[in-house]
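Final report, closing paragraph on structural work. Over the funding period we assembled a curated collection of sequence-structure pairs, and we close with a single example.
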Amino acid sequence: MTSNPTPIPAATPNSALNPQSLLDELAELQERLDALKQKGDCFADLNSQIIESRSLVLTGRFPEALALNSKVAAATERAEASVRAEPLAWKLLWIEVTYLS
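Its predicted structure, as stored:
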């Protein structure tokens, strides 16, 4: 009697399936951070967390790497939103300065 492997649900994220998917996601996060750095911001802490997450994957500590990856992804999204909102912030500052003058 052979047992068939349990199918993986379609809703399961790729990174939860295997270490290579997580490494690919980390590479994509690194590219996004590099794009943000070109705009003059520094994200050394996020870069170090990406490096740490990669080392966790390579040493077999996949659940810890997955958790750290989630934190880095959320922080990267916040940083990207901040960069997108910066022009609006400057406009609002000038409106306030003009109004208060």
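The chain has one domain: 18-100. Confidence is low (pLDDT under 50) at residues 1-13. We thank the funder for supporting this effort.
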